[in-house]
Amino acid sequence: MFDRERYWFPAKVYGWGWGLPATWQGWVVLLVFIAGFVFLALVFPPAAHTEVFVAGTLFLVLGLIVVCLVKGEPPKWHWGRKGR
Fold first, then answer.
1. pTM of whole model > 0.70?
2. How far apart are the first and last CA of the chain?
């Protein structure tokens, strides 16, 4: 048996993309993402600073997607678990 690196973000069972984190590193990334979004909403409320809020949100989302692409299972469409 070989020792392979464990994915931080496993693929979803149904659909395309990633599910909840499978490692503590993935949970840290997700919590940093959520904290960044809350910070952004508190410091730059969407009603008063729409452009900054949207730009910050795009930055956070793209950052999360990059981490998922690098440390998660390769994305592809899943139709459920095999053998069920």
1. yes
2. 25
Strand partners, 72: 9
pLDDT of residue 1: 39
Count the neighbouring beta carbons within 10 Å of the beta carbon of residue 80.
Answer: 9
Residue type, 19: G
On the question of pLDDT at 40 being above 60, the answer is: yes
Output the CA torsion sign for 18, 19, 23, 26: positive
Token pair of 82, please? Answer: 């095999």
Q: What is the DSSP string of 32-69?
A: HHHHHHHHHHHHS-TTT-HHHHHHHHHHHHHHHHHHHH
